[in-house]
Amino acid sequence: MNDWAFWGCLPFLAAAFLTDVLTMKIPNWISGPAVLAGFVIQGAGGGWKGVMFSAAGAAAGFLPLLLMHMAGAVGAGDVKLFAGIGAWTGAAFTVQVILFSLLFAAVIGWFLVLKRRESFQRLRGIWRLLQGFFYVPRWVSLKVMDSEPLRFPFMLAVIPAFVAVFLTF
Hints:
Elements: H1 3-23, H2 28-70, H3 76-89, H4 91-115, H5 119-134, H6 155-168
Helix pairs in contact: 1-2, 1-3, 1-6, 2-3, 2-4, 3-4, 4-6
Keywords: Membrane, Transmembrane, Transmembrane helix
GO molecular function: aspartic-type endopeptidase activity
Organism: Paenibacillus stellifer
């Protein structure tokens, strides 16, 4: 990935960060142009090879986040935005951003759990979930918590992850 791909993708991430923090949504008017611009820029710079680079990156961002969305972990806007990140930066960079984002999200989540003083309740719920993987006497819903799920804007984890991967890539 070239430095210009990082700087070209950054304005889309900044807009997504603002809207996600303010509304907990990432609108299509941010993610759609991010995907399109990534394909156009990579195609202009590398021809068909650049388009294939973008396609592989978009798939690498879209598919894992789609699975996370289906599990209820992220919103649909995050899925489309990661396709845009992939279109700009390619598959290898995007996969690393996903992994770093999950690590940052875990840290943020634990800070929120500690702040809300729910750590023992959450750990008990995780323990029950793990027990369910080893023994499920009948088809039951493996709901981790009876309380409201822990929610925060995923972009709080994505921005530092994006920068960290850029600095180490």
